[in-house]
Amino acid sequence: MRKARGARRRGAAALLALLALPVALPAIGLAQSLEPPPPTLVPVPGGGTSPSPFPTALRTPGPSRQPPQIRAASAILADLGTGQALYESDPDQRRPIASVTKIMTALLVLERTDPANVVTVSPEAASGRTGTGISQLGLVAGERITVEDLLYALILQSANDAAIALAEHVSGTVEAFVAGMNQHASRLGLRNTRFASPNGLDNTGFSSARDLVTITRAAFAHPLFETIVATRFREIPSPSGPSRVIQNRNVLLWLYPGAIGGKTGFTTPAGFCLVAAAEREGVRLVAVVLGEPGEPFSDAAALLDHGFAAFELRELVREGRPFGTVPIAGRKVQVVAGVSLSALVAVDAVVRRRVTVRPGVTFPPEAGETVGFVTVSTPDMRMGRVPLVVADVPGPPPAEPGPWWRRAGSAVLEAVSSVLSALLG
Fold it and tell me: Which of 260, 304, 350, 394 is spaced 20 to 30 Å from 277 by Cα?
């Protein structure tokens, strides 16, 4: 037990030391014109407080179309809206993700309960029972607090006690809540994710950079989640005494232009982890870095810079756009795009569109029927596939020349021939 406590203290000390390193480093690139997050006192293991461990500057190269060199063990950059991957570095590696776990915790809470509900804090969720003091709201047994306030504490301060209180409120027990997390992961189609706690302190749960993009996109579909992760400070009532003021640990909200939120995480086995989202000119990107040896904010910012510099949003196919004709049973049928398709494309990339016909389509098709697809790609990336629908059904073939009685006789002979062929094999 003493060894475990010592390991937790050493891990917390490492967190404070490593996150403090960038303070003396010069800001490079876009971060120069922004103000650093203000200092705030945070609790430390063993009692007392310490100045804020958050970095006050980023170390990033200038924005470039070339992918940056990063130190993370696993990383991905993706379109927050579509999930389209723009950069990958071992994105399917299974890794412990520390407090980044709390994105899934928040997602499940938002889908299963009302933010206005009031939670009565249990002794198990009370402060001091869920790890080191640096990530606590300071809940006390019997305290009554709203789900919404607990969600703010969960995301901004990464409060482990808030995670337990929310899990118990939603599912009755932590174990039942974790089972729900894993069921939801299965529904999302995640193949490299398994949760063991609602806070990530366990270090036995795991996920991957790619799976975290999926989880983050699902969470951003909830307006309250988007509001919470973009919030710098929150005042939360205390059961007695002054309100508790918490500060977001995602310093990109201060240091990166266009930052709209994310989630930090750290344990010694997981290393430094970060999910970071940003928006510029209508383009929303999400960067995930896992297993960073030092502060993760600079690498995430470098990936976001690369995304905004190297890719542009293009309308690749517009609904109703004609795509000529496709052959069906030897006849030409006019087709148009059934839906529109827009995607992020590398700047100056050549876009290719390839038309294919669905196998087994018979003539005559109905107007509006999907008879094929147009696949859109660049030399390095597949953008998507759009259905091609029938725009105009051709009429019957023109009548053969000659008198009507000759054409009628030919039709009768064809019918008789077909019957005899069927009977005689």
Answer: 350
The one catalytic residue in 52, 74, 127, 158 is: 158
User: 161 φ, ψ to 5°?
Assistant: -70, -35
Terminal-residue alpha carbon distance, the chain = 86
Q: Catalytic residue among 52, 74, 102, 171, which?
A: 102
DSSP 150: H
| Residue-range definition of the domain harbouring residue 19 | 2-311
Q: How do residues 348-376 score in pLDDT, each as one tens digit?
A: 899 999 999 999 899 999 999 999 999 99
Q: The CATH number of the domain where 345 resides is what?
A: 2.60.410
Domain termination residue (choose one: 311, 342, 360): 311
Looking up residue 70, the CATH number of its domain turns out to be 3.40.710.10
Q: Kindly tell me the sign of the dihedral angle through the C-alpha atoms of 53, 159, 131, 141.
A: positive
Give the chain's domain count: 2
Nearest one of 177, 195, 8 to 96, comparing CA atoms: 195
Please tell me the predicted confidence (pLDDT) of residue 5.
41
CA angle 267-273-274, nearest 5°?
Answer: 145
Based on the fold, state whether residues 246 and 304 are members of the same structural domain: yes
Same domain, 269 and 352: no
Secondary structure class of 373 (helix, strand, coil):
strand
> 99 catalytic, yes or no?
yes
Percent helix, strand and coil across the chain, each to the nearest 5: 35, 25, 40
Cis upstream peptide for 364 (omega within 30°)? yes
Answer yes or no: do 328 and 392 share one domain: yes
Q: How confident is the model at residue 61 (pLDDT cuts 50, 70, 90)?
A: confident
Is 158 marked active-site? Answer: yes
Tokens at 87, concatenated: 């950069």
> What are the tokens at 374?
């147009």
CA quadruple 57, 215, 161, 125: dihedral, nearest 10: 180
Distances (CA, A) of 157 to 42, 125, 263, 320: 10, 16, 10, 49
What is the residue type of 351? Answer: V
Which of 52, 99, 135, 298 is flagged as catalytic? 99
Report the C-alpha gap between 40 and 116 in whole angstroms.
28
Please report the DSSP string for 67-81 in residue order.
PPP---SEEEEEETT
Q: Going by DSSP bridges, is the β-strand pair 118-120/322-328 parallel, antiparallel, or unpaired?
A: unpaired
Same domain, yes or no, for 276 and 323? no
Rounded to whole angstroms, how far apart are CA atoms 375 and 80?
22
pLDDT confidence bin for 57, thresholds 50/70/90? confident
